[in-house]
Amino acid sequence: GEGERNPIDRRCDGIELDGRPRHGIPGCFGARSPHASPGLSAREMKLALLTISCLLVFACGTPEKTSTIAIVGAVLIDGTGAPPVNDSVVLIAGSRIRAVGTRTATPIPAAYQKVDGRGFYLLPALQWVPAGQLPYVSTERELLQVVDAGSRAVAGMITDKDVTGRELADRLHRLDVVIVPALSRIQGSLAALNRAKRNTAALARNGVRMGLAAGGAEQLELELLVESGMPSSEIIRAATSNGALAAGRATEAGTIEPGKYADLMLLSANPLDNARNLRKVEKKMVRGEWTLAK
Question: Strands 178-180 and 153-156: what pairing?
């Protein structure tokens, strides 16, 4: 009936333009040409929009709350080679690290869940490098060939002679090459393995980046690096920042810095005293979520 018609429709009643009826006049939503297909009334349009809005709300769902965690009081070994930080604070929001510092210099927002890190050592998660996907070398000549060809991550170690002097190390350091010794894959005599160990330690001491090889013998790789005499601080870098660099993940992993993924581990013993303590994991975090806890 007339009482049910939209006010806009009634407003347009009787409007003519140059003697022509109101059909099709802009702004007269109820006006239709006798030859046009029926359209939606204003009321029907509102109902349609309301239905679409409800569907969108249910389809999108309620946004999940981002988890916020503060690890407080641990000794921080951040993977960069910097000195350890006592009584540290690391703030994590969602999957990323938000802030890093000392307790006195890093305010902790009230909403953050505090995790007591006292008595633990906080490090980046280990970055194992798939050595089988890298060019493999066993001599200095092969090493120089693959580096000259553009490779910046190489598996294997020189076994045909002892590396002396700094010329090779300086060149590799300048080019930011990462060598993944893969000592467990050294074939041949025990003498070849021992020479590879000596060369690994010598190059590491002279500033060459080393990585930690994956491939099913990770714990043996760690043990052989310790046996080589490589400094614990360099083994830690090999297992964290250097590994991330070799794997092409240096911008997102390998160190504890703001903006990087919260891939972390809490150790019960100091790996700077003995790199074997990298095995003593009490808690592990992946992308801001705890995945291992004793």
Answer: parallel
Task: For the chain, state the CA radius of gyration.
Answer: 33
Q: What tokens were used for 72?
A: 């407080």
Spatial distance between the Cα atoms of 209 and 152, rounded to a whole number of angstroms: 10
The runs of H, that is alpha helices, within the chain are 7-11, 42-60, 140-148, 167-174, 190-205, 218-227, 232-239, 241-246
DSSP notation for 171-231? HHHHTT-EEE--GGG--S-HHHHHHHHHHHHHHHHTT-EE-EEESS-HHHHHHHHHHTT--
What distances in angstroms separate CA 146 from CA 116, 136, 169, 181, 202, one per listed residue? 47, 9, 15, 15, 20
Question: Whose CA is closest to 125, among 221, 270, 239, 247?
Answer: 239
- Tokens in use for 237? 């870098």
CA distances, 251 to each of 152, 235, 246 (Å)? 16, 20, 12
Q: Are 101 and 76 in contact (CB under 8 A)?
A: no
Task: Count the Cβ atoms, other than its own, within 10 Å of residue 224.
Answer: 21
- Of 283, 149, 158, the closest CA to residue 210 belongs to 158
Per-residue pLDDT of 111-170, as tens digits, reads 999 999 999 999 999 999 999 999 999 999 999 999 999 999 999 999 999 998 899 999
Q: What span, in angstroms and rounded, lies between the C-alpha atoms of 253 and 222? A: 20
Q: With a threshold of 0.70, does the pTM exceed it?
A: yes
